[in-house]
Prior knowledge:
By secondary structure, the chain is an alpha/beta fold. The chain has helices spanning 21-29, 46-54, 68-77, 97-105, 131-140, 152-158, 190-198, 222-228, 231-240, 246-258, and strands spanning 8-14, 36-41, 59-61, 83-88, 92-93, 111-122, 125-127, 171-173, 204-217. The protein has ten helices and nine strands.
Amino acid sequence: xxxxxxxxxxxxxxxxxxxxxxxxxxxxxxxxxxxxxxxxxxxxxxxxxxxxxxxxxxxxxxxxxxxxxxxxxxxxxxxxxxxxxxxxxxxxxxxxxxxxxxxxxxxxxxxxxxxxxxxxxxxxxxxxxxxxxxxxxxxxxxxxxxxxxxxxxxxxxxxxxxxxxxxxxxxxxxxxxxxxxxxxxxxxxxxxxxxxxxxxxxxxxxxxxxxxxxxxxxxxxxxxxxxxxxxxxxxxxxxxxxxxxxxxxxxxxxxxxxxxxxxxxxxxx
Length: 269
């Protein structure tokens, strides 16, 4: 199958009243290759409705209690294309993201997920270099730009000491993935859980080493909240146990946990 612009959808997953949602949407609509864009939410509000109307973007509203896994799964279900990017409302995407995605998808035999290098947004400024980003890029280096993209062994080794894959940079090829892509086992590590499960499947993990999106770090984020109450530490240990005996997993988790300070604005470098 050859993928074209009509085979991809950005679905912006909106939650309550984010001050950054319009900036995210603008970055999706500014792609050099135009693909489908829609908004999905379980917490509808006037701001989201007004922005959807102003930019003529279709808005889907889910009934029921809000939850990350349920919201992401609903967002995917709103699309009609095989390639789906769940755009996080606080983040921004570089204009060439969709073009790189389609080129990558057409360069491999059986794409499972496409994901990219990324930078951070701190206090409104783009930060493309810091210690955490350098470590993640080092971990992903063995599979960058399509190299060994079909190696299950290598991609599992890449994820065995942490999750270097930036969730909002990921595009799913739903043609080869579970109909319900995210499970509710975790609150924080549901993305790592998904990539680990997908890593067992036959197909390609394509990592584009170019910085094609920026992930916003701020005190109001869900990740920051989960770090503060130790939810993430416990979930990280559970994930590491999928790759290592408990004693080794505990040791890795001790050092891996230190990286969480990078999500604290006061610790930013």
